[in-house]
Design brief:
By secondary structure, this protein is α/β, with parallel strands linked by helices. It is built from 10 helices and 17 strands. The protein has one domain (9-382): FAD/NAD(P)-binding domain (3-Layer(bba) Sandwich). Helix 1 (28-37) runs parallel beside helix 5 and helix 5 (272-290) packs antiparallel against helix 6. The longest helix has 19 residues, at 272-290. It binds flavin-adenine dinucleotide. The site of flavin-adenine dinucleotide (FAD) has 38 residues, from helix 1, strand 3, strand 11, strand 15 and helix 5.
């Protein structure tokens, strides 16, 4: 087990702080929220159980324009203009209308953190009562609280549904040394009955993994097998649960962003750009509150509507996620070939990117244009 950078023993002194905004979780969603609050004058406190950038939980693939528009190209590793899909009966290559890139998690988190000015403390968050968040270093109270803690949705009210009953997928990958120039996906029942395998090259390492849409299906053995089939060492494991259903983005006065709100896209399990996107949206609403343009209740209602406005896209992808595994492998091959027609690829991947478009990153307090309000309305309209 790797030793994570965190505070241990005597370093875990009691934490007693007041904050205007308490951001719980310091990964993609939490850091994006903090970025949007920079310079607002609000006392923003971010809490995570580890140092920022310490615990990578993904293959770190994202549409390149998200990196570019957020000023995060310093974390960039490799860019892919094509997507390669393997099934037992065919291999197809889709020429994408936009590129996809891999990045270094620690570097990206560091760069994003520099764009914000939140105070940061390490603590394990255990739960919440009203406006008070309970941590292993004491209780923290704030009028504005965000849960960016990932799939567990720790600050939600009521019973928290746990796997395997929750609408969660399972993902596991290994990070062997190696190189490649193709972004590859396997839709192959011999690896996983419902789900897919992947290999994402990232500089000097490959990120090879298997995700199962059925949480009862264990993915360690197929992950090892896929790595071995690619002549890569099954080393440096990392995995997590991945939500595949949208959940309410506000609850009992708390804002939820990223995996805690089910913002990871079904079918593809792409959850980084959406965590950034909804994080930015949440941060812009919170900024309006701390700068006196809106009440907390108005911001809660607006952010809730913004997230729910994407339900059609999320539900459509969930239907596809349920449909694809039912297609017979022999029918899948000609289907994927037919869908490889350039016009269809441009149309479908264009719509897919639209769900959380990189232009959204150009708005808000960091942007050259103040798109925050206009974007919110147009994003709801187009979702
Ligand atoms: C194997 C795998 C590969 C993936 N690959 C990709 C990919 O290539 N591209 C993509 O777009 N998506 C990918 N995803 C999905 C993506 O990782 C998630 O959707 C994304 O990380 C969600 O970001 P988040 O900020 O909401 O939550 P997280 O990244 O899960 O961050 C939650 C933060 O909260 C902290 N935290 C959690 N519990 C506590 C606690 N009790 N107390 C204090 N702190 C706590 C954690 O330390 C962490 O920093 C992958 C997922 C998996 C499992």
């Amino acid at each position: 087990m790797p030793k994570r950078a965190t505070k241990r023993g005597a370093e875990r002194t009691p934490l007693s702080r007041d904050a205007d905004v308490l951001i719980c979780g310091g990964s993609f969603a939490g850091l994006a929220i903090a970025r949007e609050l920079a310079g607002s004058g609000a006392r923003v406190l971010m809490i995570d159980r580890y140092e920022v950038g310490e615990r990578q939980t993904s293959a770190c693939g994202i549409p390149t324009d998200w990196l570019r528009n957020l000023g995060l190209m310093g974390a960039h590793q490799q860019t892919f203009p094509e997507l390669t899909l393997h099934t037992p009966h065919t291999t197809v290559r889709y020429d994408l209308p936009w590129t996809f890139s891999t990045f270094d998690y620690r570097t990206l988190c560091g760069l994003l953190d520099e764009q914000g000015d939140a105070d940061f403390e390490i603590a394990k968050i255990d739960g919440r009562t009203g406006n008070t968040v309970h941590t292993d270093r004491g209780d923290l109270t704030a009028p504005l609280i965000v849960d960016a803690l990932g799939w567990r949705r720790i600050l939600g009210s009521g019973e928290n549904v746990q796997p395997p009953d929750a609408l969660l997928s399972r993902g596991l990958e290994v990070h062997p040394q190696g190189s490649g120039d193709e972004l590859e996906i396997w839709i192959d029942r011999s690896y996983v009955p419902a789900g897919y395998g992947w290999s994402f090259p990232a500089g000097e390492e490959l990120r090879v993994g298997v995700g199962s849409f059925d949480p009862r299906f264990h993915v360690k053995e197929p992950t090892v097998r896929l790595a071995e089939d690619l002549k890569a060492d099954p080393v440096r494991f990392q995995g997590n649960w991945i939500p595949h259903a949208l959940r309410p983005a506000t609850d009992d006065g708390v804002f939820f962003a990223g995996d805690s709100a089910g913002h990871c896209l079904p079918l593809t399990a792409e959850g980084i750009r959406t965590a950034l996107y909804f994080g930015l949206a949440c941060g812009r609403e919170l900024r309006d509150v701390v700068e006196g343009r809106r009440t907390r209740e108005e911001a809660l209602a607006r952010y809730h509507a913004f997230s729910a406005g994407h339900r059609f896209a999320f539900d459509s992808l969930l239907k596809l996620q349920r449909l694809v595994p039912r297609i017979h492998p022999r029918a899948l091959a000609p289907g994927l070939r037919a869908m490889g027609v350039k016009r269809f690829v441009d149309w479908s991947f264009g719509h897919y990117l639209q769900i959380a478009h990189p232009s959204y990153a150009l708005g808000g307090p960091h942007g050259s244009r103040d798109l925050a309000r206009g974007d919110l309305a147009s994003a709801i309209a187009t979702a």
